[in-house]
Amino acid sequence: MSLQDASTFHIVNLGCKVNRVESDSMAAALLRHGCKAEAEEAADLVIVNTCTVTGEAEKKTRKAVRHALAVNPLARVVVTGCAAAITPGFFESLDPRVEVRGKKQLEDELESGQEVPQLRVGQGFRTRVGVKVQDGCDRACSYCIVHVARGKAWSVSHDVVVREARKHFDAGVKEVVLAGIDIGAYRDGGLELPQLADLLVREADEATLEGDLPARIRISSIEPVSVSDALVGALVRNDGRICRHLHLPVQSGSSKVLHEMNRPYSAEEFMRLVEKLRAAVPGISLTTDVIVGFPGETEADFQETCDLVRAAGFSRLHVFPYSRREGTPAAERPDQVPAEIKRERASRLRAIGKSLGEADMLSRSGTRELVLVEGATALTESYHEVAAPEASEPGALVPVVL
């Protein structure tokens, strides 16, 4: 029985932004084939898009699949994603109703069949739309198993990316987010990420109606070592059409810890990149991920992290207490940091992040930015959430003075 034969569906999404993009694509395909989105307990088909990046993520994934089986005793439960790739047998053993599908297999099945009209903004989708341009990872951070789950890095053909983005532009989308597991590794022949972003800016221009504002492009999380001079140049010359915001996952401010994480830069090299970006792209907003309590992390190491995030002036921090992931080198280390210390350090760092975010927003007071209206709130180019301007429509790009 094809997935498209279901009359109602529900998607449970777990994990990273790439998973979110993939889940949105699944939902769009099912809706185009006439399926209706429904609550988990009432849907004919429940798809669980799983994550396994940490031990805690694996626990949440298994809980989500068990929950789907318990609340809906009649549904087909399709399990896909990273956890399904690592331990398919576990999920299949839970219940005969569970079907494990690889991402590519699932995408091919959902996109097969008759071509149907593109959905437009306002038909239940977020106003920002992600387009996956890259998957897989050739790095091997000592805390991570994603390179095993998703395999080697590969890139989507630029022709396919441009066609997908053009569909969204034609449907009225005003912000397309380029997503990938290691997006800076994008390669399609001689074309790299900066040139791809330039192509999409031109495509957005062609799709723009007279008197309307063209769509903007946002680059999702990118590894610090992948921020090239060409990418900096693309941010500069496009003057906000490629959002002057980058999410740079630093993970630690201690060079010792970074080395043990198998991250390919030191704290000093990271700060030189930050200084370069701020000099070349005035007003750029930088956000980051930080892992606290990595095995062997001392209080001094943690203080170095606090010092770095303050010096970098991040506008938002995503703070993650280290979670052991079986099958990774870090999980085997005997010098695990106690849970209570990890929680306390995470709390302290989140407080710093809150203060930094408030300071960054205050520094922008009186400046003009385009905001993307998402309902009662709107998202600035610099990735701050603000109140939506009065009488503005969801999906619109509107100039405001912050």
Describe this structure in words.
The protein has 402 residues and is α/β, with parallel strands linked by helices. Strand 17 and strand 18 form a beta hairpin. The protein has a five-stranded parallel beta sheet with strand order 2-1-3-4-5, with helices on both faces. It has a four-stranded antiparallel beta sheet with strand order 18-17-16-19, with no helix packed on it. Helix 1 runs parallel beside helix 5. It is globular.
What keywords describe this structure?
single chain; 402 residues; alpha/beta; four-stranded antiparallel sheet; 13 helices; 19 strands; 39% helix
Secondary structure elements and pairings:
Layout: E1 8-13, H1 17-32, E2 36-37, E3 45-50, H2 55-71, E4 76-81, H3 82-86, H4 88-94, E5 98-100, H5 103-111, E6 128-132, E7 134-135, H6 146-150, E8 154-155, H7 158-170, E9 175-179, E10 187-188, E11 191-192, H8 193-207, E12 216-219, H9 229-237, E13 245-247, H10 255-260, H11 267-280, E14 285-292, H12 299-312, E15 316-321, H13 339-363, E16 368-373, E17 377-380, E18 385-387, E19 397-401
Parallel strand pairs: 1-2, 1-3, 3-4, 4-5, 6-9, 9-12, 13-14, 14-15
Antiparallel strand pairs: 7-8, 10-11, 16-17, 16-19, 17-18
